Amino acid sequence: MALSRTRPARADVRGWLALALASVLVLGGCTPPPAALPAPDAALARFYAQQLAWSNCGGRDCAVLTVPLDYAHPDGQTLTLSVLRRRASETRVGTIVVNPGGPGVSATVAGDWFDTTGLDAYDIVGWDPRGTDASAPVRCLSDEAMRRGETVDASPDTPDERAALLAFEQEFADACAARTPPGLLAHVSTQESARDLDILRAALGEERLTYYGASYGTLLGAWYAEFFGGRVARMVLDAPVDLTGRSEISQSAALDAALRRFSSWCGGEAGCPWGNSEATVYDALASWLRGLDAAPVPVGDRRLNQDSAAHGVARFLYGGRPAWPELRSAIRSAQAGDAAALLAAGDQLQGRRPDGTFEGWVGAGTAIYCLDQPRQTGTALDATAVEASGSLFGYLMGPNTGCAAWPVPAQRWVTPRAADAPAILIVGTVGDPATPYDWARTTAATLAHGVLLTVDGDGHTAYGRGNACVDAAVRTYVREGTLPAPGASCR
């Protein structure tokens, strides 16, 4: 399906756990004491004064938070955001607010995916950002129309194929405009969600925010630190996204590099079906994937084509090295005519449920991303398409044609520096296929007080995936404020 390639990756909340590996980590300094806090804007006083009315929701506490639709007009329309809390299992010392990424993914599953080992004295709070799930969701195409979109070639080779792709993306954008409540599409940006987060902090009774953001959730954290730096207590940004506003090419390259790392592993294993070196394995897999454009593999009444296969491969690559044997098995089966496993993996990454319906984040994620990121049109978009086509995954995470058709303009890009925030812990994995390690290094250099912890491994995101070194560093920082030393790494 064409649209999903414009969606940055999210934390793998259902994926494989990485193995606990050996570590190299030296703890560094502590965060300095915070400065005095400014008073909130008087026009927003009624929002900051609200208290959350908690009720029981299946073993968790749930509530709703009221925020302005448009922060430029706080006396106008409001939105209600869904909030979920998992209470501390020990004597409570504070709250950690978490976001798993996306964009467009519900964060009210926080109590289920965030690893609280060693952090049992903290409440864990997640919320559905504006435009998602139970928080005034964006609504776009019907499931039937989305399934029809799966037949559109996402890597067009002819003018007719390109016209069909652009027509479907225009249809998608038009449906979002028609089915979403009036005014909402222009106000689901991550910058606005960062402002919502500060109102949530106040409603939780926290003077300062402790926050963990994964994948696209790191951009939300970075913008919060930019706007409300003095209100940050601790902040962990795991697998940071691009802070330059130009992510498409480097994300494609990261997926390509991850496939090469898989190819190197397979080539060194006895009986690898595609050769005994990185080059031979990679070339064989690349040739097979490209060949699916003309010769897809039937799977019941569906087909595994180039786009769905690339998404399936990417889904396995998100799991890192522990998922590589499963990826090898899924590709071998697909080449033998049974592509069900690879197609199912691709469906997960594209938000398609087994019953043929689609997750709400497919529309919400597109809406958020198109508001957040600088818009490319015309010759600039064509140039990106040409550059992206040089990567095997170029059309999976490449030209942002979906946003070119979007019915509302992007918000002004703000590069977060977070000059007023204390030190922020940034965790970057060398072999991350979704958010390249270079983005972590750039984030650490861009933020005024960013401290980078390098993870010499594979897979998307690092905390809570079984690496004892990473987990200890994050937990020590959250509990004590002690940061890894400059240049620290985990293996």
What does this molecule look like?
InterPro entries: AB_hydrolase_1, AB_hydrolase_fold, Pept_S33_TAP-like_C, Serine_prot/Carboxylest_S33. Belongs to the peptidase S33 family. One of its GO terms (molecular function) is hydrolase activity. Residues 401-490 form the Peptidase S33 tripeptidyl aminopeptidase-like C-terminal domain. Residues 95-279 form the AB hydrolase-1 domain. This protein is α/β, with parallel strands linked by helices. The protein folds into two domains: 3-137 and 185-245 and 412-490, Rossmann fold (3-Layer(aba) Sandwich), CATH 3.40.50.1820; 253-350, no CATH class. The chain is 37% helix and 16% strand. The protein contains 16 helices and 15 strands. The strands form three sheets. Strands 1-15-13-12-9-8-6-7-5-4-3 form an eleven-stranded mixed sheet, with helices on both faces. The protein has a two-stranded antiparallel ribbon with strand order 2-14. A two-stranded antiparallel sheet has the order 10-11. Helix 7 (248-267) crosses helix 8. The longest helix is centred in the middle third of the chain and has 21 residues, at 159-179. The model is unreliable at 2-27 (pLDDT under 50).
List the keywords.
491 residues, alpha/beta, Rossmann fold, 2 domains, 11-stranded mixed β-sheet, two-stranded antiparallel ribbon, 16 helices, 15 strands, globular
Secondary structure: elements and pairs:
Blueprint: E1 23-24, E2 27-30, H1 45-48, E3 55-57, E4 60-68, E5 78-86, E6 94-99, H2 110-113, E7 122-127, H3 143-149, H4 159-179, H5 190-203, E8 209-214, H6 217-227, E9 232-238, H7 248-267, H8 278-291, E10 297-299, E11 302-304, H9 306-318, H10 324-335, H11 340-350, H12 361-372, H13 378-388, H14 401-404, E12 424-431, H15 437-446, E13 450-458, H16 468-480, E14 482-484, E15 489-490
Parallel strand pairs: 6-7, 6-8, 8-9, 9-12, 12-13, 13-15
Antiparallel strand pairs: 1-15, 2-14, 3-4, 4-5, 5-7, 10-11
Helix pairs in contact: 5-6, 7-8, 9-11
